[in-house]
Batch of 3 targets.
Target 1
Amino acid sequence: DADDLDLIAETQTRVAHCPKSNAKLGHGRAPFAEFLRRKISVGLGSDSVASNNTCDLLEEARFALLLARSGTEQSKTLNASDALYAATLGGARALGLEDQVGELRAGCQADFAVVSLAGTHQLPSYDPVGTLVFSTSGRDVVLTVVAGRERYRDGRLLEVDEERLRARMNEIRVALGAM
């Protein structure tokens, strides 16, 4: 409620907003538009596969924006840039890491993803940020760089034996099923 939001703002409490997880579990809708309006540090999260089947931050940004826009008249002014901000620098600020990550600038780690906007599912595209938030998912990522090192390119994790990972996950699933 308004008192809670006042307290969050006054104490400079940081928020991890996980709208899909909250919706799936029936925990209600966080006031994303109010967080932004009150300059509360808010970043987007996916929670985990335990409460969100896909940990796709672009999908989370889209869901956060659409859910917020279905609320108050004031929240209808939110746009794709607001959602992208929460997914990037907003998240870094919520974690207290804005001096290290969250944007491409001198002094920050080189953390970024290259996303293709060439898919037919992304057409028509009038605005790259709008296309990114409303029409794109993690499946459109072609390159991921973390701290200046390529970690993912063209559908493959570069430093992970994916076949061994799948086998190990299956071993764990079988072991948990036996409990």
Target 2
Amino acid sequence: MLTVWLNVASTPIQAVAQAIIVLTPGSVAETLIGIVGRKDKPLLVTGVTIAVLLLGALAGVLCRRSRWAGNAVVLAVTGLGAAAVVTGEGAAAVDLLPVVVGGLVWYAAQGWLVGYLEPRAAAAGPTASGPDRPATPVVPAEEGATRRGFLLRAGTIALAGAVVGLGSTFLGRSRQAVEASRKMLRLPATGGLVPKGAQVDVPGMPPWQTPDDTFYRIDTALVVPSIDPQQWRLRIHGMVDHPIELSYHDLLQRQITQAWVTICCVSNPVGGSLIGNAWWSGVRVADLLQEAGVRPGAAAVRQTSQDGWTCGTPIQALTDGRNAMLAVAMNGQPLPIEHGFPVRMIVPGLYGYVSATKWITDLEVTTFDRFAAYWTVRGWSATGPVKTESRVDVPRSGASVKAGAVRVGGSAWAQHTGIATVEYRLDGQPWQTAELGTVPDVDTWVQWAGTVQAPPGDHTVTVRATDRSGYAQTAVPRGVVPDGATGWDSVSFTAS
């Protein structure tokens, strides 16, 4: 509750979990994400919470034997939480208060509970004794009464915790207030019209336009930043002649550009779903950089998020005519908070880890040798152009279909290059050329469709794409590190 009252960005447990994310090597993080998928953050917070509870239990057990040992555990956990808080991005002295108060409350509650279980000396009164009759022993407090007293105290603490949690729910208005502001915005943005023929005629195909609620989300933010658009600011500085600072209102006063753009995560495996296509509205980055006056020799733009995440983007990709933008709207509405509200970066043709900064607050024009971005220091390459890829969406893996003519389909992409042809085959037979849906430009994915003759039995359909530069998608399988996966996608199904 104190975290909410003070408007601190994260709880001590969340701060520790965030520190674990920062310290985890890239290859380890990639492996874990591959295992648990989008549940990585909830599982991490749950794990930290369980660890804290177990340490609390350990401290209680140790206190029965030695108060100093139990208190040492409390002190160590409090110190760990404080270290995680102070090393977080934008940490202030007030952020430490919930950790300190939490440690003191833990210490006090532990002493109150454990102290009740310690043997209590009873006052010695007159006893009947004599040569043939030993003194009546002093009877300690009854075990049942001790247990009832302990449970009563434990119940009191649990009730207090529930009340505090309920109070936090009513007091936690920061995200609600930002969400209310977001819904009240009326932006100079329109809803994009899906091009006629973009959606191919194959039952079961996912939509060509990805809805907000199913659009993939990959970031390191354990606590999603809630930024009031009235408080948002963007700095453009570094190797420029005229540094710029923009408010949200300032940004919206500039010319708005809108486009269909498919963005993709470098962690997307062959045939994966970490890719989405949306109608984005925003301000062209090239125009802002021209206004700032980029100096000769500049080669990169270091992007920084509100939560401290960074990436490095080749300046050429921001100024070569593609529709790189500071997006303010997605599919005709203000950005969802989880997808970067109030402002995020969209750069066609680059993986998100080098371009798609959410909750963006800073653009520094510089060179690559002057900084280290979040993912590049963890083993990923510095530039990150999207690889030409394709996948099978229909039939689904393991599906059962009617034998005979079977419609198959999927998606292919080569953002900012464009797809020329897509080919598919059944069970290693000769390749067939797929039908392609229409696309507005080279910055979006394209849907493909075809028909195979599948007799009863088990089958495998495989797909490959060739982009407009003439590059044919390689069959060589490779993992996502350091610059994206390669290989042909295959799906097995049964015809009967």
Target 3
Amino acid sequence: SGDVDNRETFWEIAVPRRYLLGFALYDYWGRATHIALAPDFTQVRAMYAGALPLALGAAALIVRPTAMRIGVAAFGALMLAVVLGVWPLPELSSYLPIVKTTLHIRLTIVVMLCLALLAGWGLDDLTAEHVPRRNVLLAVAG
């Protein structure tokens, strides 16, 4: 592709960590119809998950922490670290031929998929007939 020369520095692009607040607060950084307060406005809006999926995702890890759920949560956390540009992930990706020319901010979609899986498992756990009472109390308290 003739665009490869332009993409050589894409591995350096990351979302600033202060925009993590956008996971729970939708309009905290402004609205596109009024004033966009964030310079990377569309990426920040893509990070919105909501309070209920975040709570259900936490419940999935507290009520029944299986290896699959912990693995999905760890994979989502790793992808979020790549999106945020946590050291040494950007530097490591700069050595991989295909990965260094891609926009890592798009991995936000994978983070949201992991959160959606955890939220679904959490909802299943909380609506099941036989739920460990102690773990549900811990999830609600959290």
